Structure formats: C-alpha cells, structure tokens
Amino acid sequence: MASTFVMHFSNDFPGFLDAELKGIVDATGIDLSSSEIYSPDCPFRKYHNLTLDDVTTLCSRSISLRAVYEYWCESESLEDLLHQVSVHVQQEKESCTSYKICIEPFNRSYTNRTKERLLRIDALAEALNIDAPVKLSQPDAVYSMFEYFGPHGTQSTAEPLKFYFGKLVRRWVEVFSAVTFV
C-alpha cells in the first residue's frame, strides 16, 4: 500500500543529495517525482506514493538518509499540529503497547530551552492520548515532531517556521558524517 513518508537527510553536503537520489532512481526505478522539497537547505523531504519496499530500498542504498517517518501531518502552528495529531491517532491507539516522543529541531537546539522542550513533549503526549506506557529504550512506536527554524547556516527564527509530525519507520543507530571521511 502506498503511503507518504518524511525523510530526514544529512545536511553535510546538500548538493550531493540530488545526485545521490537521481542515481538511486536510475538504478531502482523508484518514482520520487511526487515529492515536496521544503527548501534546498532543508534536510526534510516529503515523498508521496511510496511503499515500504521502496523505503527499504532507499534506506539500503542512500548514505545521506538519516531516518524515515510515516507522515501524519504538518502545520505552521503548534496548536494546529496538536489538533491534527489528536485526530490522526485514533487508529493507532489499539496497536501501540509502548511509545516514545521525540522533538527534532533543525537549525536550533534545546540546550538552554529544556523546559520548553518538555512542555512540547507533554502537549504531544496529551494529544496522542495513548493508553500505553512511555518506554525510552526500545519502544513499540516512536513519534517525532520536527521543528524547522529555517535553512542551515542562517540565523534561526524565534519560533519554528513549520512543524511536521510522523511515526518512525527506520532510523540508523549510528549517524555517520561524510565530513569525517574527507
């Protein structure tokens, strides 16, 4: 069954990504034409009409792909995103035995804003309203909210420009940086 996925790519060599994806498309025949690129400098891309087999193939061939998420929703405001999450989660509630919530900011960190991060995690937990225990190590499901604060290397905005939310499909245990191999 075809679905929509958000893919989180490494931002070390943004010019390399398009060439890498073109090579994968040429080698495998996977159709990545129905994609949404938020900005050339944004590491998140949304792809429509992909199957889990397509995603597995992409994961096995890409060196810049960091993680893949089943796309649920996006918004320019946190309140709207929380509403969309609470509507979407109804079909998830029965199958989830344990879960974890992650916040993934881009072009900003939570080093000095731990309280703000915890408030967002609590708000997401309330919106999800899943009757299962939180399990930080090896949970059954990992739900992630991405906060896009603008392109890499620019002054980040005070509030995220966009929020995205999804369920983790696959993440690499170790994230290798191409910079370390140069």
Describe the structure.
- The chain has 182 residues and is an alpha+beta fold.
- Helix content is 28%, strand content 30%.
- The protein has helices spanning 14-28, 52-61, 78-88, 114-128, and strands spanning 3-9, 35-37, 44-50, 65-75, 99-106, 141-148, 162-171.
- A seven-stranded mixed sheet has the order 2-3-1-4-7-6-5.
- The longest helix has 15 residues, at 14-28.
- The chain starts with a strand and ends in an 11-residue tail after the last strand.
- Residues 173-182 have low confidence and may be disordered.
For the secondary structure, the number of strands is 7
Helix content: 25-40%
Strand order within the widest beta sheet: 2-3-1-4-7-6-5
Indicate the proportion of strand residues.
25-35%
Shape: globular
Mean pLDDT: 82
Radius of gyration: 16 Å
Q: Count helical runs.
A: 4
Low-confidence stretches: 173-182
The quaternary organization reads as: single chain
Distance between the termini: 40 Å
Structural class: alpha+beta
Largest sheet: 7 strands, mixed
Order of helices and strands: EHEEHEHEHEE
Summarize this, please?
By secondary structure, the protein is of the alpha+beta class. 28% of the residues lie in helices and 30% in strands. α3 runs parallel beside α4.
Helix-strand blueprint:
Layout: E1 3-9, H1 14-28, E2 35-37, E3 44-50, H2 52-61, E4 65-75, H3 78-88, E5 99-106, H4 114-128, E6 141-148, E7 162-171
Parallel strand pairs: 5-6
Antiparallel strand pairs: 1-3, 1-4, 2-3, 4-7, 6-7
